[in-house]
What we know:
Elements: E1 9-12, H1 13-17, H2 33-42, H3 59-75, E2 82-85, E3 100-103, H4 105-114, E4 118-124, H5 127-133, E5 138-139
Parallel strand pairs: 2-4
Antiparallel strand pairs: 1-4, 1-5, 2-3
Amino acid sequence: MKATTPTVWEVKLSQIVSRYKPLDQWGAGVITEEAVRRAVRKKHFDFRVHDSLPGDWPKKLLRRYHIERTACLVIHPDDTPIEIDVGCPVLNYTHDSDLLVIDGHHRLAAAMIRGDKTIRVTYGGQVSEFRRLFPSARSCE
């Protein structure tokens, strides 16, 4: 069986951040936009991807990493689509905030801070739920 590549969609960023708070997802306390902007001004960037970090970092270092990683992406955008899950309400599988970001928290936070109007996503879950949440989504294919 041949694997298929998920369709990439362009959605309004405001429709995601109204349901999901990208700066409060890392277990390091809420990261503020001002902290990220300060890191940008001071050119404090972290280019490492999250998977490369040690698993036992103290909260203070973890917080600094997330601020500096997001700052890096504010200045050096990555257009890799974020991955979201919209659930499957027909099977009673839902998320507290209507959706869950599987991959791309830093890219999403950076896009929000830059003031981007749209963001590219791939999604899992019920098609009708995706269309309900993102009625103006358009395929990038």
